[in-house]
Amino acid sequence: MGSAEEDYNFVFKVVLIGESGVGKTNLLSRFTRNEFNHDSRTTIGVEFSTRTILVGDAVVKAQIWDTAGLERYRAITSAYYRGAVGALVVFDITKHQTYDVVDRWLKELYDHAEASIVVMLVGNKTDLAQAREVPMEEAKMFADNNGLLFVETSALDSTNVEQAFETILKEIFHKVQKQKQRSSQGNTVSLASESPESTTLAQTEKRPCCVAL
Amino acid sequence: SIQHVYGAQHPPFDPLLHGTLIKPGSKPPTTPVKLKKVSTFQEFESNTSDAWDLGDDDDELLAIAAENLNTEVVMETAHKVIQNHSKLQEQHKFQEEHLQEEKQVESAELTSVDNRLVKSVSEGHTSSSSDNASESSSMQRSQSLPQTSTPPLVSGMGDCNTSVTPALTEREASRLDKFKQLLAGPNTDLEELRKLSWSGIPKRVRPSAWKLLSGYLPANVDRRESTLQRKRKEYFAFVEQYYDSRNDENHQDTYRQIHIDIPRMSPEVLRLQPKVTEIFERILFIWAIRHPASGYVQGINDLVTPFFVVFVCEYIEEEEVENFDVSSLPEEVLQNIEADSYWCMSKLLDGIQDNYTFAQPGIQKKVKMLEELVSRIDEQVHRHLDQHEVKYLQFAFRWMNNLLMREVPLQCTIRLWDTYQ
Q1: How far is CA A3 from its chain centroid?
Q2: Domains of chain A by range and CATH?
Q3: Which is nearest to A76 in space by CA: A89, A84, A67, A64?
Q4: Do residue B266 and residue A41 have CB atoms under 8 angstroms apart?
Q5: A196 interfaces chain B, CB cutoff of 8 Å
Q6: What are phi and psi of A15, to 5 degrees?
Q7: What is the pTM of this model?
Q8: Which of A194, A182, A196, A190 lies closest to A211 in space, CA to CA?
Q9: ipTM of the complex
Q10: Would you call A75 an interface residue with chain B, using a CB distance cutoff of 8 Å?
């Protein structure tokens, strides 16, 4: 890691969840490495990447956890939700079945993560518009009704990928700022009312502020 | 069953020294099967030391191991990766317009880091395993790499190739003879075969040895051919009986998952031509249907590959190896390979089914064992991981779930499996 990498004000842990094959791994590689792989291997368990971006004048390091979509891994992947401040729930706009189960993914998420987690619904694969099975309005309405951010993306042609991650990171940032104003905790910021002791992602003097749930 | 060699080179677990790991009142962590049978480390070491015999056709693998254990090389490689990473970070500022360039730089650098490892593999080969093939197969290995090259047809099939090296060393020849004698029957002593296989099975006899060791073929030589015929028939009867149900409501999820996973396997040695894809789909679907307790779980698909590749080697001539097209094999041969792969994979999975049942207890147990092992043999590493809140499950889950298929070159996996059977 270069030293520039170490200079950040916040670490935000964000999880990518959703059915197998909707494109979670490619969304992540598009965002962190600007790469797309037509036959990227199935994710086994969890893998993660980071990218540091500027939000306002704060340097935010996004630590994004890419989880396996397969049902059998749930017992193990759910442990990875711990400490996440954001989640992208991804579905494939060309496969209605992957949208139908978004409810189940949300339940899974709220069962294991803090209630204050920022959640974004992501309809991926807009490059396959001719095969669309989920109308954008429908997904948008669902997101509005459930208090989720919403965006449609294409990891293949890059549409909105940057924007999706930036939006959720900004939203988390604003939540953190608000919390900071209200809280007198000084440097350690938590989105949750109760802050568990051990989930702080990074704690050194060099790093001005860490976020934990 | 799997024979554990964990900790073969390290002192046994001492609860007094590792009080921190065991909570008071809890039972000491389970030790590997092999350890239970021996009372001292010396005994254990002598029991397992033959796995590292020098001079066999393991030379290439030992070369890899040696390279890997060489601190200088490790540090150098680590340094390169870091350099490469920093460079990439800088490059990312340029984004779109330099994308292509960047990919090339990255793959070139990563390949050169990787190449050391792959090259040492091909050194064991006489000539035909070209560096080109090794390079592209090495690029297939890491999923984060951009796939800029077309994989060779069956490049890694060079694995079968060493057996036809003109000059087998005397020792190799005598080992091959020993295997041949054992395999010739009339009743193969499986324990003896297992013992002999511990330090590696010569490529030429590997297909038969695997089939015997897995319990697929009977020890009695006269019954083997009829067993093969019967089992192959039985498998295709399953196909007949179940395969049409793949689009039924209760099975379509299983089939859909298998269907989307196979193109995403990108095994390093096989180009997934439609014919190969179909074979893998059938094997996996039939297995899943017949094992409802676990069903199909990602990772199981990777376990077909070693069997398939080893059994293909049974049917091809040395000069075909380099650019071999699996689908050019006669239909009947392909069917034999398919059925044999199915049965041997089933036998392997029988022993590790709890890896894939709900909550995957087998994997969790193995990851715990790994944690115990690391804490014992390299406390510094263990403490470091702990300090940074890195959980073993986060990095070792895939190792166990895919039996290292994603982590080491296929040749090494195949060699390891010689000891699993």
Answers
A1: 25
A2: 10-183 (3.40.50.300)
A3: A67
A4: yes
A5: no
A6: -105, 145
A7: 0.71
A8: A190
A9: 0.79
A10: yes
